[in-house]
Design brief:
The complex is a heterodimer of chains A (368) and B (307).
Chain A (H helix, E strand, L loop, with lengths): L2 H44 L4 H13 L2 H26 L7 H18 L5 H30 L3 H21 L33 H17 L2 H11 L1 H6 L4 H28 L10 H11 L4 H24 L6 H30 L6
Helix pairs in contact in A: 1-2, 1-13, 2-3, 2-12, 3-7, 3-10, 3-11, 3-12, 4-5, 4-6, 4-10, 4-11, 5-6, 5-10, 7-8, 8-10, 11-12, 11-13, 12-13
Chain B lengths: L1 H29 L7 H19 L2 H25 L4 H24 L4 E2 L21 H5 L4 H19 L1 H11 L1 H6 L4 H25 L5 E2 L6 H12 L3 H20 L7 H22 L16
Antiparallel strand pairs in B: 1-2
Helix pairs in contact in B: 1-6, 1-9, 1-10, 1-11, 2-3, 2-4, 2-9, 2-10, 3-9, 6-7, 7-9, 10-11, 10-12, 11-12
The chains are: A mainly alpha (368), B mainly alpha (307).
Chain lengths: 368, 307
């Protein structure tokens, strides 16, 4: 056998293995989606509605025509950025559960920069407010990352607690110094027009922020999967002691990955102001930081699966809104579902092992 | 004197849910399955306390049925974590989101209301006034005029403390976390210990939730636990598995919460006052990490990038 044919053979085997792996992964996602679908049907039927027609109504609301697609997309943009941020931190072993707080911080900083700076040339002003949001999120996350890296302060708990501190601090500012005197308590004034992204499709809320989000997604993918820094972060996440042994600066990897994660969450908050609401108010984040944490967990902190799940969840959430309009099924359906899906996805290997064991016990296969 | 009276009385009141949840979390810390979902379990407890209370019209069945429901869901959670081998961190985070979303879902689909569930038929848990002690200033506020759950949680502190010293079950729980092989060699079941810890944890979290919703106001509002579950989690981590420390730390958090109520608004804005328990917990976490020589309990986070 010549060397060439051997090499060919080997590459064939490698291909077969990878195709088998891909099939397995696809099957896993399919399994999760099917169970998720069954839960949806049961929940809708329990409310006394025909499940399938109701779900089709919901899908029409989220993806029925270009206007609806644009609306769904517009809502998904901040979530996308936040999820990427959380995934990036998870990947380097930093469990940043403070995305919610960092989103609020980013939104607050953006609102302040949008109100008090300018009016400027729109592009410049948008850049300034977005950077302000990114900086606010990054500062908080990097601070907590520093505490973890240098003093060993558990980042899971510190980021959890930071959420409440940041959100309450924001609430304090908007009921006092930043409050819009002409409105009810709890909101700021609207930001100046030059700090807002323009709509690219009228009356859909879809703004030119989508270009920023696409660029960020590409950049994050490159950073995580192709760059040297991303490699160091991944090593730190998989095994800090190994990373330290091969000369990676674990401390700086931890701090910098947290900083970038916080910056992305901050930008997500910034988009909530500059691409949709136009002002800061006490409940602007509406839990998307938590959605982002779940999505990053389901995507196992990998960039492409995370993006895929962002798309699925965005459609789910938008459809749930549609379902709420035609039935009495609350829109929180999507939250219940995503929480169920993550447990199903994580339980799948365990379920299969259990089923296998039961089968072995009651229907033992000969020779096995 | 009235100031201190009110301060200590509300301090004891606020300590109750934190301490109950923390006592629940303690067992899961022993089995090394520290449950991050205390918050989610608590809010379900708060919701079902009011829901069952409005259906039955009495507080006792509400407390008992919610407790049983907590135990049942603890069984489910324990099965998911110990048998299906779902990472407890992932399951806990999912539980928190399910708690926030699920209670709102139930609120809207069962009662068709947004925000707050209250009804005239809901009876709040009665306060127990102890005759002579109740009249003494300060001490009266500490010992008298609380719900049965407050007394229960301090009874449980003593019970757990005694169990640590004298019982086999606590050793088995700890062994199932620290040396599972040793436990199974000695004939104990690691699996049942891990599931038992979750059942216990959920039962107490359910009670903590009931205390929040029926202990004072007899109503449920969306997101009413507002992070208290995480404060309890902090207490579990700070205590490093020791019951006395757990009680003391929960008391500190409860008092911080009470201070927020008692201090007048013109001295401290209400938002800063509400922030107090979280700030105390965060500062405590930092001090603990900086000063302690032994490693604190780490929340068992998963390694995500395997496949």
């Amino acid at each position: 056998m010549t060397i060439q044919s051997e090499a060919k053979n080997q590459s064939k085997i490698a291909k077969r293995i990878t195709s088998k792996l891909t099939a397995k992964k696809l099957f896993a996602s399919l399994f999760t989606l099917v169970i998720g679908l069954i839960i949806t049907i049961v929940l809708i039927q329990l409310q006394g509605y025909q499940a399938i027609p109701t779900m089709i109504e919901g899908l029409k609301y989220s993806l029925g025509d270009p206007t609806q697609i644009a609306r769904t997309l517009a809502w998904g943009l901040p979530l996308c950025v936040a999820s990427l941020g959380v995934a990036l931190a998870f990947r380097s072993g930093m469990f940043n559960l403070g995305a919610e707080g960092q989103i609020y911080a980013g939104a607050l900083a953006t609102a302040v920069a949008g109100i008090y700076i300018g009016p400027l040339f729109p592009g410049v002003h948008i850049a300034i407010v977005t950077l302000a949001g990114a900086a606010a999120g990054a500062l908080i996350a990097a601070g907590l990352g520093w505490l973890r890296a240098v003093w060993g302060v558990d980042e899971v708990l510190s980021t959890l607690l930071s959420n409440y501190i940041v959100i309450l601090f924001g609430a304090y500012l908007v009921t006092n110094q930043l409050r819009d005197p002409s409105r009810q308590s709890g909101t700021t004034r609207t930001v100046q027009d030059s700090s807002m992204f323009n709509e690219i499709m009228p009356k859909t809320g879809l703004t030119s922020a989508i270009y920023v989000v696409v660029a960020l997604a590409l950049a994050v993918w490159w950073l995580s999967e192709r760059s040297v820094i991303g490699y160091r972060w991944r090593m730190t996440g998989e095994s800090p002691s190994f990373a330290a042994a091969v000369g990676i600066n674990v401390k700086s990897a931890r701090i910098s990955s947290m900083a970038v994660s916080g910056a992305l969450a901050g930008i997500a908050g910034s988009l909530l102001v500059s691409a949709s609401q136009g002002r800061y108010w006490t409940e602007i984040g509406s839990g998307i930081g938590w959605d982002a944490v779940l999505i990053a967990l389901i995507g196992r902190a990998r960039i492409l699966p995370t993006l895929g799940w962002v798309a699925i969840y965005t459609v789910m959430r938008s459809s749930a809104r549609g379902i709420e309009q035609v039935s009495a099924v609350p829109a929180e359906l999507s939250l219940v579902l995503i929480a169920a899906i993550i447990v199903i996805a994580a339980a799948r290997p365990g379920v299969f092992t259990q089923v296998d064991q039961l089968r072995q016990r009651y229907f033992p296969r000969k020779g096995a | 004197m009235d100031f201190f009276d009110a301060f200590f009385a509300s301090g004891m009141r606020f300590t109750t849910p934190i301490l109950l949840a923390a006592l629940g979390g303690l067992l899961t810390a022993w089995t090394r399955d520290l449950n991050v979902g205390l918050e989610g379990a608590m809010i379900f407890g708060a919701f079902f306390g009011v829901a069952i209370g409005s259906a039955t019209g009495a507080w006792l069945p509400a407390v008992i049925l919610t407790l049983l429901m907590g135990a049942f869901f603890g069984l489910v959670f324990g099965f998911i974590v110990a048998v299906l081998k779902v990472n407890v961190f992932v399951a806990g985070i999912a539980l928190n989101v399910l708690g926030a979303g699920g209670t709102v879902y139930l609120l809207r689909s069962l009662y068709g209301v947004k925000g707050t569930l209250s009804s005239d038929t809901v009876e709040s848990i009665p306060k127990i006034d102890i005759p002579i002690i109740g009249d003494i200033p300060i001490i009266g506020g500490i010992f008298s005029g609380h719900t049965v759950l407050t007394y229960l949680c301090w009874f449980l502190v003593i019970l757990t403390g005694l169990a640590v010293r004298h019982s086999v079950i606590v050793r088995r729980l700890k062994a199932s976390g620290e040396y599972p092989e040793a436990l199974s060699t000695a004939g104990g079941s690691v699996l049942s210990m891990r599931i038992f810890a979750q059942v216990w944890c959920f039962s107490l979290c359910a009670l903590a939730g009931v205390q929040l919703s029926l202990g004072q106001l007899s109503l449920f509002t969306e997101g009413m636990t507002s992070g208290l579950g995480f404060v309890a989690l902090a207490a579990v981590i700070f205590s490093r598995g020791r019951v006395v420390w757990l009680a003391a730390i929960s008391l500190v958090f409860g008092m911080a919460n009470a201070a927020a109520i008692v201090i007048p608004q013109d001295i401290l804005p209400p938002q800063f006052a509400q922030m107090m328990p979280y700030v105390v917990a965060l500062v405590g976490l930092i001090v603990l990490a900086k000063t302690s020589k032994e490693a604190a309990i780490r929340i068992s986070t998963p390694v995500l990038d395997q496949r």
